[in-house]
Amino acid sequence: MEEDANQFPTKELLDNVLIVEDERDELEAPEFQVEFLPPAAEKGADSGGRRRPGNADADPGGKKTAAPARFQACGLRGTLGRLETLREEKELLVRKTRGELRACRQRIELIAKQQASVAAEVAAGREANNTASVGRLQAVSRRLCTELDDERALQSQLRAALLKSESAVWHIAIQKGQLEDVQASAQEEEAAARKGLRAHAAEQLHREEEALKKAERNRLLRVRKAMHLQKEHGLRHQKLVEDAKKNHKIAVKFLKASLGRIREQEREKEMGSQEHMKRRMDAVLALKNSISANRETLRKFQAWGQARAELAEQKAQAQKEMILAQGGDAFRHLFHQRQRQELEAQNRAFEEQQRLRKQEIVGRILKEEAAGETRRKRRSSPTKATGRLTLRDETWGYISDVCEDRGTVALPRNLPQDSEAVSPPRASQLLEAISYESVQGDSGNITWEHDTLAEPEIPGLWQEDYKPNQVPKEEVDGKPVGGTKMDKDILARTMEQLRSRVTHSQVASGHEFKGRPFNSKPKLIHFKDFDVGKVYRKKITLINATHTTNHCKLVGVEEHLRDFVRVDFDPPGPMSAGMSCEVLVTFKPMINKDLEGSVSFLAQTGGFSVPLKCSTKKCMLSLDKELIDFGSYVVGETASRIVTLTNVGGLGTKFKFLRASESCEMDISQSVAKTSSLFTYGDKGIYDKITTSFSEQKIEGNESPPADMTSQKESGKLDGKKQEEGRPAESEGVTMSTVMTVPPNEEQTEISLGEVAEGEIGPFGSIKVPVIFTPIIPGAVYTKFKVVFKNQQCPTLYFRVTGVAIDVPVWVPKPSVDLKICMYDRLYQDSILVHTRSKAALRLKFEVCEELRGHMELLPETGYIQAQSSCAVQLKFLPRQSLPEDAGKYFDKESRVLEAPMTIRVADQIKPVGFTVHAVVTTSDLELSPSAVDFGHCTVYEAVRTQVSLCNLSLLPQGFGFVGLPKFVDVQPSDGFGTILPLETLQLDVIFQPTKAKEYNFELVCKSEINRCFKLSCRAVGVRPPLGLSHYQVKFAATSLYHTSVATLYVINSHVSMSSLTHSAPRVGSEDVSPVGPTTFEFLPPPDSPITISPLVGTVLPGKRCLVQVAFRPVLPTKLILQEALQTLTKEAEVKSPCKDTVTQRKDLRRQSSTLRLQGRDHPPQASTTQAAKLQKLDLKPRGCLPESGCPSSATNQFWGPGGKGTEAEAGRRGRGAEHSSLSAPCPTPSPHNTLYLELWCPAVAPSLVVTSDKGKTIFNFGDIAVGHRGIKKVSIQNISPEDLTVEFSVLNPSGPFILLTPIGKLPAGETQVLTLSFSPRESILARETLDIITKRDTLSLTLVGTGVASTITCSIEGDVLDMGYVIAGESVSSSFKLQNSSALPIRFSMQLDSLSSSRRGKSQQRLPQFLAFPAQRTEVVGTQNHSGQSVFSVIPVEGVIDPGKTQDFTVTFSPDHESRYFSDRLQVVLFGKKLSHQILLKGAAREHMMFVEGGDPLDVPVESLTVIPTCDPEHREEAEELKPILVTLDYVQLDTDMPAPPATRELQVGCIRTTQLSPKKTVEFSLDGAASLQHKGFTIEPSRGFVERGQTKTISISWLPPADFDLDHPLVVSALLQLKGDVKETYKVFFVAQVVSGP
């Protein structure tokens, strides 16, 4: 045994534990089979029990074996517990089995005793010849024998089970003993390993402490070095500041001198400008007065014209009356007179036009002469024209001829060379001729205008159609007068080319230039703060920004700027790229108003413009501060602060500083007669003349540069003064007074203003006003001041002044020390400066409030300050976590603000000096939410992503990073590193991908920049599913819309062995390995996806694989189709009717869109060829967790393929919502964790063939077609591909109902063909077939659906039997029923009676009569018929049509002519003349009298004899009536049990027929005689007598119990008389036959 024990080391203990667990599973099986441990396991257990404790110490790798030892110990303890539980269960089972065995033995003994007693009773019964009792006892004996055999078989089974259970208990006891020894040795080894771990931990702790000390020393060294560098930097900065101040003082001195000289020069210029402006204003006022006088004269002339018109009207009226009195035609005379006047007016207009043309010609000649004179003066050697007359000489000759009334003289083209006699007239002579001709006129046409001497000051002012002398552009040649004809032609062609194409595109190096052709520098022409009447000039530079040579031409300025802005631009000609030219813009403001516009230019590549802006002077005032805090001053001292009032505008104003409680009244005058108002007149012509007169005045010299703002300030002041002083008294103006009154308040004499409290501030100037604080009484002082201005547009400005008067000689310049934002457990320092005014040294003591002494410190605590000097105190602030509780009222927990009062106590002084330390204390915590993450179960083929929130609880930004991440975990974004802002929350993705199946428990560490660690606990369960996929990613080929692509993959079950050495065994975490066996899988595609998987569910055997087909059928979304179609319709409507009314267009579009929506609901239309290929990524997600367990985790599963962990880019891409498919493969034991994921890439493209008919549907429903009929459908298909296609068709079912009538062979590109399909159902079925139209590009599938409808109706009669009841012979009764058409087609019906059928007659002649046949063989449904030959039954209507869903009512009439109980017939419902739908059996009975009896056993045949039974004569009628028998048989069933059997019962029905005949009695009485004698024999009859109303029936119940002396071998036969009294009296003899029968 010792040798065997040494062969198995301790490492096999876990294998032993697994074997025991397997045995436990086997013991729990229903068969209770127990298998013993293999020899190797027993040897391992023995060796484990005999190991020495010292082996653990001798093991050099104790650290490595410590963890396995603990696992072994835990496994052993669990195994022992399970064995103990199993042993108790087995013992309980043994006890239970023994009890059952004892009970079984007792039942066997009891059955044996019962058998003995039954045998004795059987013997006694046989002796007594009691056959019934013997039979019953024999049955009991057989039952007891069967029970005895069953009990014996059960006894043998219980014995076998008891033996197995006892052997299992013994085996468990042996295993428990072996494992207890193994547990003891494992505990010893665990103790030794724990001791080694403690020693290793102590050593590791010592190393960590040494490293921490070293890091602290390095940190202190860095702090000292940083403080030294900061001190050096401060000294260097102080020196630079002092040097800058010195240089600034020197520069200010020289600047003031320069500004003084410049201001003097500007003042002189401004005086001259004001004098010039005054003279111009006087001229404008004189012009205004002259215009008023002229207007008055015009009004007088208009009055004279009206009077003259009235006088002329009176004359015409008098003349008309005179002509009428003479008998003439007044109308004709007036008409001729009006024609003469119109002709004279036309002549005068023509003469006036000629005169104007002459003046224009003279003006042109004079201008040309002046220009020629100028050119002759400039030439050094002028050339003289000889030989022939020039164009000017010819023109002068023509004008002289016209002036001398020579008629129209044509200018000759070529004059002879000796035509020197013709000399041009002098200018003076020409003017005299023109003036003389202009004043000549017909003496008869002199009007009243010649009677007045009033003439306008400006020629043509009184004429409405007057136009100044302007030369039309069409009549001016491009060249000066005298140019050659060739020059004119060249110029004309050039101008025509320019007009035809002003601009064209510029292409250089194959690139077309687009954009602004010239760049302006500056980009904006801004005339700022201008004065009316001055002239401003600015130069701009235009730079050619194109790629090649370009031209530039000035177009002009906008209309509203032409009166003020003039642009001087000399076109430089072609300009190369990058070259520039200058443009001079002159602005002469005439009105005081802001102007905006642009200067337009035209380049070779297009036009461009430079924006122009002119802004008036404005007053923009502001104060540099709103609060002046003097701080603390001792009483008696004086402090001063400066408040600066700044004007950044170009207009000055008067100001005044006042207290807010004082009232101020200032005259704010606004003069209406400003310079701008002088030029705002409605008369545009006068305004043009004024502008022209002003523009003729030349202003020499250039404007001062814009940078010289000082001169503008001075000129603004002088301008304001001149406007105030020189304003005339009669000018119109409005004076507004603003009075501000405030309730009187106590004046603060401690705070006052300096000497400069009011005055005038110029443009771009500033005024410094001193504010003086002279504390008188200790305490706080507060005063509010305001600044008011004369300019009403300037708002009132306010500022506040505060100060504190103290009487302490020691003070702190900074009474409030702000430490900004501080973190807990971090040290912050600051230096506090203390001053003294005392002339002696003082001892100071620095105190911190008691609540904050653990967090704040002042060093030194005690010190001396010298006379009239200062000292510094060091403040150290180290906030602890307990600061909110310790500080109390000094700390606001909501805002985290700390206000700590500090005290400086001065020796021999009662009142201390205080100052306050302010700080915002914040934490440095980073919060991870949630604090623990459970990834749940994740397979090794996927990754799980969950979001974690990282919240910065601090008010300062912090850097963070996740360090020491395991290989199977990734944190994104930025790999878990970054900076988080104050109070910000970041969402981080934690991605987990297991590498093997086990349970994971780990922590993620997030470190902040101050080396604080925050941990996130994570756990997960790695799962290796029992199934795998051959491909985890499927990429479909480009698939046409509404077509199908199929991919194939395999589901593989590679789990063939329980051994983990050959392959990775499938398991869930650390659970047992999944058993080897068939495994079931299920695919769970998402709803509404174009993916079809076949099969969805299957089972895979070990080592086998299952073929799976994945089909992809893309469809076009209806929403996208509607959107594209609506856009197309909108564009077509815009192109087709651009001028259509807007309202009509909207109505049409709404109608078209609504129609499109209705079409889109049925099926999406055809796909266009321009539709781009779309890539769809479909996600097949698992259905969720099974009902047996909850969801494992809230994390999101992302598939990364079977190769392990994906790359960072892949993780980021899939984390952004990439869609994937999933595969669910549960094991035989339902588990939600065995899930695989399948990724599908599905591109869709446009098809080559589309259906154009029926809104693009590919499913054609023929609808409901009656069987035997035929339906036709036509389908239009179109080839939308760019090439011709050869078309083939799939074969339809030859036996099916669908047929392709018109196949085609070829379909050209863009054409449409029509296919004809038919549907002919042969039976009532739902037919469905697919017709594939096959081309070389793709296949178009058409689904054909049709329903063959059989004609079906439903009948309202239940059981297809219509019983008409009893009727008196010779009368009739009717009943109705309904037939409903439940099909979708109208049905034609016909009603047929078998009694009227011709086929019945032929059959009846070939067979024997029915009354001769056996009752069971009778099949004839037509019973007794009328003797008269008429049909007993009739139906209305006989035939007709029932619409779909409608109901047809039918009436059946029963008319018997003699008495019989067997009237019957069959009614057949035939549809469409050939289909039998229903068969209804019609029954009825007839009586000659009103009473009848039903019930009892039949005593006659249902078919009457062929002979007619003669009726009895009245003498023998009563005797015949008494002989009517009724047989009632009652069978009493005797049961084998002791329970009494129910009595035998029968019923008789007594009825009274409702009749229309008159009868003396309306009821029927009945009575049964001999009821008492029947009762003695066991019969009970209720009721024995009574009466029945007409149309009603009554039931007579008969029951029988056998009496005690009843003989079972002889049936009981008794009779009684039943009498019925109605219209006649009938007597029935009722025979009661009773017998006893044995039960089943």
Strands, helices and their partners?
Layout: H1 2-6, H2 13-27, H3 39-50, H4 55-58, H5 62-127, H6 131-326, H7 330-378, H8 391-403, H9 427-439, H10 485-500, E1 507-508, E2 511-512, E3 518-521, E4 525-530, E5 536-544, E6 552-557, E7 565-568, E8 580-587, E9 595-603, E10 606-616, E11 621-623, E12 627-634, E13 639-647, E14 653-659, E15 664-671, H11 684-695, H12 709-725, E16 733-740, E17 751-753, E18 758-761, E19 766-773, E20 779-789, E21 797-806, E22 810-811, E23 816-823, E24 828-836, E25 842-848, E26 856-859, E27 862-865, E28 870-877, H13 883-887, E29 891-892, E30 897-906, E31 913-922, E32 926-929, E33 932-939, E34 942-952, E35 958-963, E36 969-972, E37 977-980, E38 985-992, E39 999-1008, E40 1013-1024, E41 1028-1029, E42 1033-1035, E43 1039-1040, E44 1045-1052, E45 1067-1068, E46 1079-1083, E47 1091-1094, E48 1097-1100, E49 1105-1112, H14 1118-1136, H15 1142-1162, E50 1174-1178, E51 1196-1199, H16 1208-1215, E52 1223-1224, E53 1235-1236, E54 1239-1245, E55 1249-1251, E56 1259-1266, E57 1271-1279, E58 1285-1286, E59 1288-1289, E60 1298-1300, E61 1306-1307, E62 1312-1319, E63 1326-1334, E64 1339-1349, ...
Parallel strand pairs: 4-10, 12-21, 23-31, 33-40, 42-54, 43-54, 56-64, 66-73, 75-82
Antiparallel strand pairs: 1-2, 3-5, 5-8, 6-9, 7-8, 9-10, 11-13, 13-19, 14-18, 14-20, 15-16, 17-19, 20-21, 22-24, 24-28, 25-27, 25-30, 26-28, 29-30, 30-31, 32-34, 34-38, 34-51, 35-37, 35-39, 36-38, 39-40, 40-45, 41-44, 44-49, 46-48, 46-52, 47-49, 50-54, 52-53, 55-57, 57-62, 58-61, 59-63, 60-62, ...
